[in-house]
Amino acid sequence: MATSDAPLEIGHVALTVRDLDAVAAFYQRALGLDPLSQDGEIVRLGTGDRTLLELRRDPAARVSSPREAGLFHTAFLLPARADLGRWLAHAAESGLRLQGASDHLVSEAVYLADPEGNGIEVYVDRPRAEWPMSAGGLQMASDPMDHAGVLAAAGGSRWAGIPEGSVVGHVHLQVGALDAAEGFYGETLGMALTVRYRGANFFGAGGYHHHVGTNIWNSRGAGRRAPGTAGLAEVVLRADPAELAAIAVRAGVVPDGPVALQDPWGTAITVEAK
């Protein structure tokens, strides 16, 4: 399934960065994102006419600690396994430093980070009919990825930039407590809790395996993020009109446009109409 089939999906992610030029160049070189617009201190990158990543310059931003709440990774979903194979070959040829790769049963994923330490996942979904189910619900794991199989799927074709149809499939967050995260992402935003994992919960809308992941692997007990911190600045969600109205009601705000919220750790979550 496509994430766009869901009533609620990720629109784009905004990061506060200290060196805008270096970080923007990295995403263009490493992922092939296209520069779409620049407004003074803000650069928007994406594919086609869709912004996937917004970079906001703040040279004075405080470097965040890996134990704080915030971004674990932004996950860029490619349309097909062949695309992941082409990108993986490009990563090797470009000398990108990868941090790992996993078979999550519902998807195959490769991990890295940008020059300021913001986590990145590049992944492809398996067909929904192949997602493993049990009596307890959807199953996910972190098994070794079949690198050879992924590379072979490209059929020798080369990476030519992020393909049309790529989206931010999900955002994975570091949080201070799983129950508080469940209250916000599950109850206020209305996403289904799809998988409980060791130290992590995953939430999805419309049957997708997850649009938001939350974990306490490094950040258990973290408080609200301090203003002026580099890293995650905002997650923008796109919702069907009925879903947007329902979120506004649950959040106790007037549903007369985009709904601006904060999760329990101060991360800005904006929900706008599709």
TrEMBL record:
Spell out the molecular function terms from Gene Ontology: lactoylglutathione lyase activity; metal ion binding
Coiled-coil zones: none
| Matches recorded under Gene3D superfamilies | 2,3-Dihydroxybiphenyl 1,2-Dioxygenase, domain 1
**Pfam families for this protein:** Glyoxalase
Q: Which domain of life is it from?
A: Bacteria
Q: Where are the TPR repeats?
A: 4-37
What are the entry keywords? Metal-binding, TPR repeat
- Domain VOC: residue ranges: 9-125
Q: What is this protein called?
A: VOC family protein
